[in-house]
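## retry 2 of 3
previous attempt timed out at serialization; input unchanged, resubmitting
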Amino acid sequence: MNGQTAEDNITWEKNRIEALTDGVFAFAMTLLVTSMILPHAADAPAVTAAGALTLLIPDFIHYVIAFFILAAFWTAHHLQFNQIRFITRPFLTLNIIGLFFVTLVPFTTSFVGDYPDTLASIVFELNLMVLGLMMFVQWYYAAHNRRLISPRYPEPKVQRGLYRNLVTPILSLAGVILALAGSQDSTMIYLLSPFVSYTVSRHFAGKKSGDEVE
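## retry succeeded, writing output
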């Protein structure tokens, strides 16, 4: 009656999906460097080595942004799986969908580096937005009613995980709005990510301390 099948309730060990996830993240993070392609000397004889490196600055900036955002997503995924006891078919499906958007990051990073216009920026930002939302949905699914995590896992930590997973989607939405408004540097919004994530963590650390005092 609730729309679930018997297969949805089967629980599986989590080690294989962890291995797959680690491999996909590692490959995507390595593949990012291919977005920086030096012009061939024969094709651009007037361009010096210093000039070629200068031309790569926009690509390099997007490479750094994408690399560290993927690193942050991998860290979040790792922290989530430390609390998850087992997985179910719906959670596996969510994880696979998330990995699909991980594999798109090298492409959208290269796209925004080669075509620094509104459309390319929005494609890049939407990619990261959906990836962040998938991380949020995965954690919500696992933590709701302690479906896949320990019943004793503290609620403030559950909430902190949810809010931290929303940092990238919110910044991505802001980036899309800036791009539509005509900004050529909307992707620089992601440079705020460490500060926003730190603020969220501090907020919930203070909330936890307040609860303990009470």
